[in-house]
Amino acid sequence: MTTIAASRPAFDQRKLVIFLLDHIIEMCLLALIILLTFTSHGFLTWANWMNIFRSNSLKGVISLGMTLAIIAGLIDLSIGSTVGLTGVIVALVCREMVARGGNVNVACLIGMGICLAMAAGIGWFYGYFQHKMGMPPFIITLAGKFALFGLAGILSGFPIANQFPDWFNQGGMGRVGGSNGIPIPAIVLAVTFVIVLFIANYTKTGRATYAVGGNPESARLSGINVGRTKVLIFIIVQALAVISGFMYSGQVMSGTYSFGAGWELDVIAAVIVGGTSFNGGAGSVWGTLVGIVFMGVIGNGMTLLNFDIYTQNVVRAVILFLAVLLSSYRAKAKA
Amino acid sequence: MGAVEIRTEHIVKDYPGTRALDDVDVCFDSGRVHAVVGKNGSGKSTLIKILAGAVKPTSGRFFLNDQELSFESTADAYEKGIVTVYQEMSLVPGLSVAENILLGRLPMKYGAIDWRNTYRQAGELLRQMKADIDPHEMTYRLSMWQMQVVEITKALSFNPAVIMLDEPTSALAQHEVENLFDAVRTLRDQGVVVIYITHKLQELPRIADTVTVLRDGKSVGTVEMKTVENKDIIAMMFGKVELKDRPKDIQVSNEVVMQVRGLSRAGWYDDVSFELRRGEVLGIAGMLGSGRTELLRGIFGADPVDRGEVVIEGVTYKNTNPIQMVEARVGLTPENRKTQGLILIHSIRDNLCYASMNITANGWVENKRKRNQFAERQVKELDIRLSSLDASCNSLSGGNQQKVVVGNWLNISPHIMLYDEPSRGIDVNAKQQVFEIMWTEARKGVSSIFVSTELEELLEVCHRILIMRHGRIVQELSPDAVNTNELYELCMRGED
To answer: I need a labelling partner for B453 at 20 to 30 A (CA). Which of A171, B44, B223, B491 fits?
Structure first.
């Protein structure tokens, strides 16, 4: 019989392997940045980086929420439609109220309020029916995707003269600190990151999120309110999609139903590249932030290097594949 | 097919820390049904796994008709004509009966599946089994016993010399069992060696020709079924049981902390009423399928109940749920710790703190320091052996996992604990430690309900025992008034 103390090596190789596997995405990002710095002129400049953040923050904000959903074993495929519908609703309310002699600022705020209330309603609907009826989240939110997209199309079926107030446009276009400053969407991304990170790591909701995704039956039998947790997560995702929709319609100064179409797949890709397990129960908000930046940097780098859009898609596919391969390998290494 | 005989010589199987089989000699011949019985952990499943090629013996030899066998895999055993029907069904629900029987060996014609031949062959096999099942039927439409018969028909399609049936009736309702027995007798009459593993002694007179009893990894003996009665077999299974003394210092007060009134769930338990007192360890004895697990889950609100109510410290609960039970300071350690008790991929710290989440947190925000204290307290008090609180529960042994499940609940400072099979699959030492925990908690005034298949454990641990049969509490007794054999007989009486 060997004693445990004597048989344990001084240097734990397995732990090192797991540490490296856990942080491989950060290392890859670093390597990518170094590579692009030397191959692409103008990559490592303030203006370019602010540009990366400006164009990736809108999806990024939703990715942070989607992280919670995927950790809980859920998914929301309807966020792209929510983004489009948000712009349409705000534009519609502004137009209708201004046409009736209302104040454009008040109108815009009312439109935004309606959108946030809608997010709460949709989130509750998904969470309630998914939990009570055991409907697959994939299907129920796929139905939601069609419904919301259709609704946005119906509402924008007549011409909308967009009359957003200036501050609403600034939400998508503006920068803090002059024309070379930090884009407002990047600041929204940072604030959202801090909030979602806090929820995931420092609140009961966060603990319940991991528990529900890890083993819903054990979570339920431990007295965790599984249904409420799911409703809350769906509401968070939808609310972030609405906020993203505000910024998007502000950025292009119009509300069009097709905005955000197809975003759900990019959003999910960033979460998975960030190391969150599609099986639920494991993942990190920090990882998703790294995933967002990674996908942003690689897109930016490929554009700077004049890759055409088709090649870019193939490269993204390869990255996604490698990320999933890695997480499967990681799960095996830890078992 | 001529006479066939499968035989073992001095089989030994060691697992780390335990000897599962110790010098086992058995011999089974064709044309008869050979029952192998023994309580949990007696080694009967290890013996079957060795004959089926799933594990290799540490030492010893085994023979089929004097030809020595050595299996690297279950495929080798199949090749020799030794097939096993496990209690977990291997049928694919979405395929037809014929496809399941011939799965992987469907007859082909011109490079495509020959469906006419498939159904004809399967139909012939089913006729051979005298089973009235349509080979075209979708498998998910079959009843449990029909699935079990299809499973056996599939085994028969390999032209086996030996068929081993592992607890084939465990999922069957009473009236279905006879149908299955017909199939087993058909099999026997075709000259196959039938080895029948069971823990339901009441079945033996109806199906078995010989009975081999294993106890603690040793073969106690093989007897002709005609010459023995159930109580002889029970005596062979248990031997002389030495019961540890229950601590005498635990005071059960007269104060009733929980009343169960007329609790019923159709098909599982019916009109169950009893009382639980402060500091009491109350045992519920019953065979598998008696409704004991479902009763505990009903009390805890894990499953809905049809009728009845539970009064806990003066508060009446009708169709409650685990969220309310946590608030009422009631804990349940579920039957299956891996799928119901733990979140295996999560850390030991997290698993120790799920039930007590509302206690450790400051409102919505977690208090990491307090969580740590709670986790560390249980590690110390329950003597959980771990490398780090951050390690996943996957890394723990069964006994330590069970302690984490218990610790998760002790962290809510429970008033009532419901233990469902807490000793399943853990070693003797860990078992004893779990019982010690129950007693320690009882001294603090915690009341417990303890459900176990191991009846001698109930005698050892409990102050009072309720006998459950067919979903009803039929008797209440003191553990001092009976011995293990009598308790066993009480539980299975009238189960035919």
So the answer is: B223
